[in-house]
Amino acid sequence: MLIRYKKTFEKIAMGLLSFMPAEKEIKQLQQTIKQYEVEDNWQLFLWKYEEDIIGAIGVIFKGEDTVEVQHITVNPSHRHQGVGKSMVNAVTDLYKNKAVVPNEDTKAFFEKCSNDSTQDCE
């Protein structure tokens, strides 16, 4: 289930985002979280499965009709189970009147998902 990021989820969100290659350094990670908190066109969503938050997906609104996915991350113990693809589908459903597109960091993941192979889509 997709839930919107709140400040109370900061530590878990930072932990999940730290799995992204560009977010390895703590200063960069803190800056990214801050942008999700203060920038109106940045939205971070968390993926809740049962009682645990196991994934995160972050988007930036690019103009009126485009949503760019800039972060997709899943807890390593829940990878290769279709969680990432489920998050992309949930964001696509949420913004069904907009084009949901990847950025350079998420492009390869989108390409894996487009071949409909859930096993490779993590």
UniProtKB/TrEMBL annotation:
Keyword annotations from UniProtKB, A to Z: Acyltransferase, Transferase
Gene3D superfamilies reported in the protein's UniProt record: 3.40.630.30
- Tagged with keyword Manganese: no
Q: Where is the N-acetyltransferase domain?
A: 3-122
Cross-referenced InterPro entries, in alphabetical order?
Acyl_CoA_acyltransferase, GNAT_dom
Q: Which PANTHER family does the record cross-reference, listed alphabetically?
A: PEPTIDYL-LYSINE N-ACETYLTRANSFERASE YJAB (PTHR43800)
What is the name of the protein in this document?
A: GNAT family N-acetyltransferase
The organism encoding this protein is Metabacillus litoralis
What are the top taxonomic ranks of the organism? Bacteria, Bacillati, Bacillota, Bacilli, Bacillales
